Each structure stands twice: as C-alpha cells, then as structure tokens.
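Protocol step 4 of 5: obtain the predicted structure for the target chain.
Materials: sequence only (see below). No template structures provided, no constraints applied. The aim of this step is simply to have a reference model before the mutagenesis design in step 5. Sequence pasted as it appears in the construct record:
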Amino acid sequence: MFGGIQRRVASLWFPRLSSERVLRRCPLNGPFALTQKQSNTNRLYCLNTEATRQGLHQGMSHSDARAFCPSLQTAPVDLLQEQRFLQTLRRWATRYCPWVGIEGRDGLVLDISGSVHLFGDEEDMLSDMRARLMRAGLSVQIGLANTRGAAWALAHYGEGIAPASDMLSALQNLPIAALRLDEKTSTALVRLGLRKVGELAAAPRAPLTRRFGPDVVMRLDQALGQQPEEIMPLAEAPHYGVRITLPEPIGLISDVMAGTQRLLIQLCAKLKAQDMGARVLTITLRRVDQENQDVELRLARPLHDPHRILPLFERGLAEVDAGFGIDQLRLEATQVMPLPSQQITHAPQRHMGHKGQLEDLITRIGTRIGLENIQRFLPADSHIPERSFVIAPAAYSEPASSWVCLNPRPLCLFPPEAIAANGPQPPTRFRWRRMSLITGRATGPERIAPEWWLEDDNWRSGLRDYWRVETTQGRRLWLFYTPQNPGWYVQGEFP
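Step 4 output (structure tokens):
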C-alpha cells in the first residue's frame, strides 16, 4: 500500500522483438530469423512465428537451421537498433503511467498504481495495450501483479492478472525459472525435486541459503512482496536545442550572426553542464514565407566553446537566401560526444591552443571539401612496408605520438618497378623510368619476410632483401632483391 493505493505492476514481454522490428519495415512471407555470431558460429537469435513452427529455436546454429528448413531467410541482428526500438516503446508506454522502466533486452515494466481508473479497469488497460501493439505488428505477453517479480513471472510463464490479495496463489504452479533465477540454479533446484514456485516456498529456507546463497530466497521474497523491488524509470535524454523568435524579420548577415551567437551561448551552457561537446550542429532559419533553410556545421572535434564555434558558421550563413526576412532561428546539436573537464596548467595550455587552431582549420577546410577528405597517416603493426601505415580521416582520429622504425623508410612509396640487374648485390648501373643511373653508395641488406597468414599477390615471390642506394645523379632509391625468384625492383624514393 502507498498512501491508501494498492501497488500494481505490469510487465510487458516482447518474445519476438528483434525479428518483428525488422519485419515491420520489410515484410516477408515464410520462416525468418535474425542471426548473431557467437564463438565463430552464426546462431539464431530471434525467430518469427513461422520459423518456430518449423521446429527451429533460439541458439540453434545457422547451418543446422538451414538443413532443417531450407526456405529459412535470415539477416544479422543489429543490437543497437534493437535497444533504440525498445527505448521508443518505453516512451510510448508512458501514455499509461509515468513510471516505465526497461526489463532486460526485450521487456518493459510499468508501475500503474493510481492510473488504472483512467482506462476503466485493469482488463481494459491491458486490452488497450495488446490492441495497440498488435496494430503495430508486435507480439506481447503481459503479466499484472502486486510486485515486479510476480508480474515478470506471469508475463513469461503464465500470462494473466494476479489477484491483489495473495501472490503465492498466482505463482505456485509456475516453474522455478519464473523467479528470474539463472539456468544453473534452476537446474540444480529441479534436481532436488523443487520444480514449482509453491514447492520452493514450502521448503526450509536455511538449507536453501546454505547451498545456493541468498539470491534464491531473495527472488522468492521479491516476487511474493516480502522484499521491496523498485522500478526506476529512465530519465529522458537531454535535448540540445534552442531557438529564438524575432519580433521583426532580419536579413543582414551581421544580424543573423548576432542571433546565432545568442543561441550558441545558451546551447554551449547546456553542453558544458552535461560535460558534452557538439560534433555536428544544425541551425534552421525560418523565413517569413514559412520556408526553412538549414546550415550544418561538422566539427573536427567536439566543442562547447561558443567563441570558437561562431566564426566557423560564418561561411555557411553567408550563403543563406533570407528572402523577405528571417523571423526565427533554431540551433540544435544533432551529434554530441563526451567532453569532460580537464586540468589546465601553463604548459598544456599552449599545447591545447595550437591543437585547437589545427582543429578549427580542419573544420574550415572540411566545410568545403568534406571532413572525410582530410586525412592523416597513422602507424600500423606490420613489418611489411605497404602495411606499416593506415590512412584515416583527421577529424575522426588522433595523431600518433611517435613512429617506431628501426630502419629508415622512404617518404615516397609506390608499387615495385622491375629493373634489369643480376646477382644479389646492387647493380652498379641500371635504368629506371628511362633514366640511366650509377650507384654511388649502397647500404643493406635488410631482409623482410612475407606475412604468410595474409594473402598478398605482391609478396608471392617470397623473401626480399632491401637496399638503400644513393646514385651519383642525386637519386636516393629503395631497391629490393628477391632471392627465391631472382630479380631487382625499385619500390620507393628517399627525399
């Protein structure tokens, strides 16, 4: 009882949440399942009704499932989209009560105490839930009881409504697994002859606690209402958006920038309070003719400093057609990232200042050619020259602190180009790219073996002996000799 109101909890279980989420967008006829890779094996993760009728089950290997059901259609599961969809269902469920929490990966729990009368009675409320979810193409099993544990048990093992007087009478014939125990504990209890909740409730508690610990008795007491179990509703994600409606339309770029500055100060204050930084910002300008124009700014690093962000908006805002005037501005951070506060001293301050200037430069250039087109080289863990580096967008990567290389490498690296020469020693004279060159000094060899675990047609000739060759004509080349398949090649040039 809470203030004279009997506590009532509803548990919603969506047994086919993942597969039905996909089928709502792309309907298919016949058996369908989502797969997940586990220990190098694709296994069935979530099945539709038709696949279950064919005898398939969750956890079955994909190859066995196709052998049993050749017409099975599958797709890989997207766990992130699944959780986002569950969050959408949680927001939808707040139409029934304000206290809605997430139960595992495929369920919701609602504290409907005091809100049932808005829908008639409990049966009417649950009927309304089922009808709306059915129209949305979702299967659901609902349990209603005084406690969270009892509602979960009824939703998973005995869909229905428990009377408000006695929880044990509603749960006593349900299996032990209905108490939310792990599979190992449930199996051990069944081997002891405790197959149902009623049998467990009648068993002596002291031996159970000594053998299984306090969890078994705690789960039983939570289901029967002898121990409290709270429902914690998830807080709404902060919304990083601000707007301003102007009393008179504006059209000058200076006025638009002044309005943007006011919005940036408000938005950055929100971001800073949450230790977040904006990565993508969008400002929407509404004209008096109700037409909207959007200007997007993608930053090289997350920021919450309005003075650094404002100048970066200038180029995009200058291209806006104000028409007969702009009467509303709306600024939103569409992508944010954590940006915790950092301890600042005089030494890092100078470093951070130079870094900030580089990021602002990357952002300015990125607004013209795209952030993905500004790239940097990063070291890779490989002794093969072609694989000793990777190219990554500068805005989405951090520069490497140092490059470790025992032997110098040429700055200009290109595919091997064959030259005419014989023997394992560097040639004294050779032609390369229509140039006659004379070897002045040669340093080496440096033997590099291929990575046998990777397929690479360029390294099928086997070992390579690399030489640094300085020619009398001024060229400093990187040559290698292949002893297993005799031949000489030029692969790079030193500055």
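Step 4 remarks: The chain is about 30% helix and 30% strand. Residues 346-369 form the longest helix (24 residues).
Proceed to step 5.
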